[in-house]
Fold each of these.
Amino acid sequence: MAMIPGRAMVEDASFAAHLRAAAPDRQVEAMVGYLRTRLGVSGADVLLADYRIAGLWGVLDSTTSGRIPLTGQDAAARCFSSQQALVDTGPRGVRLYVPVTVWGERVGVLVVELAEPPSDVLAGRLNVLAGDLALALRAADRDTDRYRRVRRRGRLSMAAELQWELIPGRSLWHDSYLLAGQLEPAYTVGGDNFDWAVNDDRLTVTAVNGDGTGLPASLLTALAVNAMRNARRSGGSLAEQAELASDTIFQHHRGERHLATVLLELDFHTGRVQAVDAGSPRVMRVRGGEVHRISLEEQLPLGMFEEGRYSSQEFWIEPGDRLFVVTDGVYAAAPGEREPYGDRVLAKAIRSTRLQPATEAVGTVMRDLRDYHDDTELDDDAVIVCLDWHGMKTERLG
């Protein structure tokens, strides 16, 4: 009987196959070995963005001295922000920086050391390989803690651990839109969260303002988010998603705990947005440089009453519009008895992002919010979600 060759004996025909053959926690080492032997590079590493999207940290060298601030002008930071490959021929030799991104999720930056500036062919090939690596790293996160350890620069509270496991990602891209979100305080966030999903040319986005603080708030949010997902994945409408979450919360807490949320569903073909406003998160629209709050009928928070029922409303967005969704930890922030951040300062911060993509805009507004707190830890959870709507540009296959 002929012996079936093992995976190690099979010559990989592609980079993706090479990564699949490696253990989840050895993806970067597999990448470096492949680039050395197949493309003749001198060395390589992957820099991952931390939880606050404040710095980049090397997987192979994740020491404090290796941090690259994302607000600086280092080539790696500029590559991450612009999502464009860059060549640096500085004192460290020739280095090519390539964004490691999949479906718009900015994982980090691939750094490749070369003997000479790369040709267009080599740069193009490395760009493709970086995309394969991004997909592999996202999949590997299910089975290893290594990349999370690099990204987190402090210990998460138990509440924050639950919240970060809930979010789908920090950015999402399609020809029709660019979507991004951020949680703060990143390492101690309690009840605020966001969620999104793309199904059948519709984008669903939710922002949650959990009741209370710490672990009880996080558990309440986890219950609500998973109930809304359950209804959505069963084909339920926005109203049905809110109703299942409300009923589930009431069954467990009998009206003593509740949760505020806003649910949005965007139709790619028409720009129509259906909305269920069940509490405090706000929706702001930016059009022509002007910032306006979308006026929605505020319904009761989820879980206040048995068999709570919800109705959806609608508004429209046009190509070029931007939506911000923020929780009360953003617009109601009033540290040191200052005026509430959302009365005037939030609109100013939002306008300042007009030349930035959504992925950069959320960080700009969040940094401005932290500055408003005199750079101290936020005294309430904060969620910012930003959607850039480009309009339906391509026909979906299928």
Amino acid sequence: MEEKKIHRAHVLIVPYPSQGHINPTFQFAKRLASKGLKITLAITNFIYKTKKPPQPSDSVQIDTISDGYDDGGFSEAESIDAYLQNMEVAGLKTLAELITKYKSSSNPIDCVVYDAFLYWALDVAKDMPSFIGVQGQYPAYFEMVLNQFSNADRADLVLVNTFYKLESQVS
């Protein structure tokens, strides 16, 4: 009798390209992987080449996208606005290419979890479930994200890093 191969859900996670976002996102990725999901963490080319990115493992693999500054990262940009604009243009293109690459693999991407600051990722992930990961640990930060990014209400789910004792006063 031939054994059927079970498809593991494949989650693509796209953190904002700074250590303060990548490290907690990698911990979240490992947690999801421990539940049996296949995880791909998409970091920028610059972070991958020059920083100490998380080491891929059997449970979490690393792939890359561009922020438009592949050789110098944020330090090449003349301003934060220029960096974010270039990252949106380059990120949209390379994130779409990454999803397409996996589409023809034996384990295509099933959903995308992206950092709230990368609101444009939703435009690429529009045909699959998409989740916003909010790094802040309190409701006011979440409200800022919803106010700042007009498409946050289009995501399938918003993930907020928090716990009950921190917000026991919030109903």
